[in-house]
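A common beginner's mistake is to predict each chain separately and then try to dock the pieces by hand. The better habit, illustrated here, is to supply every component at once so that their relative placement is modeled jointly.
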Amino acid sequence: MYETLDTPTLVIDEEKALRNIQQMAAKAQDQGVVLRPHTKTHKSPYFAQIQSAHGAEGLMVAKLGEAEVMRRAGFLDQSIGYPLIGPLKEARLRDLLLAGVRVRISVDSLDGLASLKRVFQTTGVRIGALIEVDTGMHRCGVEDPSAVLSLAQAVEEADGIDYLGITCFGGHLASTYDKDAIVGRIREEDRLLSELARRLDDAGLHASIISEGGTIPAAFLDELRTATEIRPGTYIFNDVATVASHAAIWDECALAVLTTVVSRPSRERAIIDAGSKTLGLDGPINGSYGWVVDHPEIRLTRMSEEHGIVQPVDGRSLDLAIGDRLLIIPNHVCPTVNLHDFAALARQGQLVGEVPIEARGLVQ
Ligand SMILES: Cc1ncc(COP(=O)(O)O)c(C=O)c1O
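With all components supplied together, the output reads:
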């Protein structure tokens, strides 16, 4: 299996990734919403370019480091979904604006707004702002609708800042793998957003953008009628979590980690050369830290940094020899990609090249 590749390494099925990109673009177009993919999953201008060529309007990034990589690659329409706090961040935002990037930023506090105002004062470049709303994930975001209204009013009145609307992230929607429960939560999310939009309208603060993040809500887009924009990231490759959440099927998982069996210490245990430093440590899901392709009978039950412990589900013996290669679909693909400098590209099982992951590790 890909004998010329040293392991552990990422292998991306280019055709599957392209199909995922095209399907999401078609879905967004059908429903009349803007698709602004989150680059946090692939962290690579190569894939951002393919997304742009297939219906994406602008990019979403989390951190300034990602924004800078995408700016160097020529992406000049960016939404930053992370609070920018402190003079060091303000200086980097200034550079980004002066380099010609049209920037929109999520804001959930007057401190965040003050940073943007200071940056405008020294650049003269207007900045778009979306109020980040907490719809249930309980991470960043304003929870109380009245507080959303007052922050929106403050943004509307701020010199040099364009109030654009609201943004949220439905990360909490997939904390169950029950399809009906997920759909129910997405409907509730939609109800919350539409009520908030109505209150903003009543206050003369019309939200021209209502942006919802996440692959799970994007997969159930017909339930999310209030959103004007979606920001899925994981959909490009998918992973065990998106499959478990009914947002994808195995055949739509475009990325796997190629590993080698390096030890067979016992009848029911094999060790692969990929641990938490290769796969990340999300999970387990259904008792496994990843899905072993073509081996439904085995699980990746434990990991240390450089070792993965593979065992059969029911205590049977393992039909694996030292030197065998296994492909593992990560539970959560985004942290996995972030651990690697490059990924191999494959088409119909043949290697066709490799792509650098330029923004990997850029957490600042
Ligand atoms: C603010 C924001 N928007 C969009 C996304 C993309 O979500 P997903 O990876 O589920 O597609 C994320 C993911 O963490 C996020 O934090």
